[in-house]
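Help!! Second protein's tokens look totally different from the first
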Amino acid sequence: MRIAVFGSGGVGGYFGAKLALGGHDVTFIARGKHLAAMRASGLRIESPSTPMILPTVRATDRPEDVHDADVVMFCVKLWDVEAAAKQLAPMLAPDGVAIPFQNGVEAPGLVARAVGDSRTLGGVAYIAATISAPGVITQTGTMAQLRVGAFPNGPATTSREFATVCKAAAIECEDSDDIALGVWRKFIFLAPMSGCTAAARVPIGGIRNDADLRATFIAAVREAVALGRSRGIGFAANIVDEQIGFLDRLPAEMRSSMLNDLVAGNRLEAPWLSGAIARMSAEAGLPAPVNATLYAVVKPYCDGARTAANG
């Protein structure tokens, strides 16, 4: 299968490496020092369970040089989604599909607007991984799963084919019959977890072991669930308890990508996570004071530490 990985950070780098090692034709789209390192010495995945080394990879910073991709794994940061989505259509083969794997819930609509419903799948990635050095992806913990699926009128056959390809490459991947629910299930956990860890500057263990921070996380999840239900997402009755249980099973040292970006002085995805919950809840006439506060706390840093320092 011809696969393009558009955004070769933690998600795209890790799963793209596994697909390349599985024998597929993978092109990584990256930029800056990360791209230069990949071109010079390949891609290395540091992982407690599946370390990988690709001595050579095909990598470019020019999406326009990619053509006839059967699948584009669309893994750019949330602030790049709208602009990058406009570059997808020429990259795809006639029957090719784009799969957005962003953390928010708005990317699939933007991708579908760019390439059409019939060429868009939904995707969810469960992994804690980040670029730890140019050309190096470091995974925390052992969780590494994908979920893909077709929205109504979407390419369900291609979804099943891609899931099969992933499994053959030793990737745990589920073909979901309700991918909208899957996307929202991740969102209602990831947005509160990112907001809490970034606001408090602590990893997950610090959130769940502090009574006040734990209560803040739970309240943020409840607000996100209420928003999803108002949009027709069929959450189970015990969905909040499920999210709390998931929090308690994760490695205590796990850090959200937003916390990593905050510490590094990078841009933050907060406007599309806690900020999105606050914004969409306001539009629906729903209260979301906890998510609004989590967003407000990190808002000065959303464009990077230098912008915050300069007011």
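Here's the second one for comparison:
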Amino acid sequence: MRQTLSRRAYLQGGTLMLAGNKSMAQTSPQSIRFGLFTDVHHADKPEVGTRYYRESLTKLEEGLATFRKSKAEFLVCLGDLVDAARTLDEERALVAQAMGLIRGTQLPVHFVLGNHCVQTLTKQQFLEEAKQKRSYYSFERGGVHFVVLDACYRKDGVSYDAGNFDWKDTEIPAAEQSWLQQDLAASKGPVLVFVHQRLDVEGVHAVASAREVRAILERSGKVAAVFQGHSHQNDYREIDGIHYCTMRAVIEGSGAANNGYALITLQPDGSIALEGFRAQRAYQLVSRAKTPSSK
């Protein structure tokens, strides 16, 4: 059950309502629905701790079936589609297997690069498998501006490639930050951002320049929400009017009940419904998102 709200956001019937975002209401003339999942870590190896690698594809299939049934317009994978393999050929086979399932939906898909995506492959090799030209870019749909970011860089500015990095060393470099600032300035309407590593915290799961990147998002006055993965656990923060939703990992836990994925619906009235499935948590929220005219 979804309800239209004014300045409040709360859970109703398993749906997360983020409302009161005037920038969303200003330029979103139609309802937009997309599927969202993260951290599949597909691999042919026994479980390690809470990670059940050989169950990931079955969990992914369930999510994809839900997205098709719900008539999602496109899909977003927030990174770490596969885990590290022993050889390059094995890794290519894992990627092809997972992407084959995803493409079977016949829905457009956008891949955010995660650190495990380039643990064995180079960044270019993964993008070629994904049939995606760039690692960071933006696109428009239904009056909403979507931004895909790439935080798979070291703090020294070197791009992740075939395991030449420590996963705790993650950055959005100056050139990408400059592009982001220009992209947001040129966009007309409400913005949603996708990134693998986290922008809302400090520590090992966070982008080194998270504060600087958040400042760019905040100054634009157009960003409604950021969706991220990487730390595998449900989490949520609101910082200066922007919602930061960290999604549950597909890989975590054994059995269907431990799966996690979401269906996002952007409504013409400005509300954003995040419907969580299985272990994807729901929240009660209050929106204070800025608008382009706000001071």
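Reply: Different proteins will give different token patterns, so don't panic. The chain has six helices and 15 strands.
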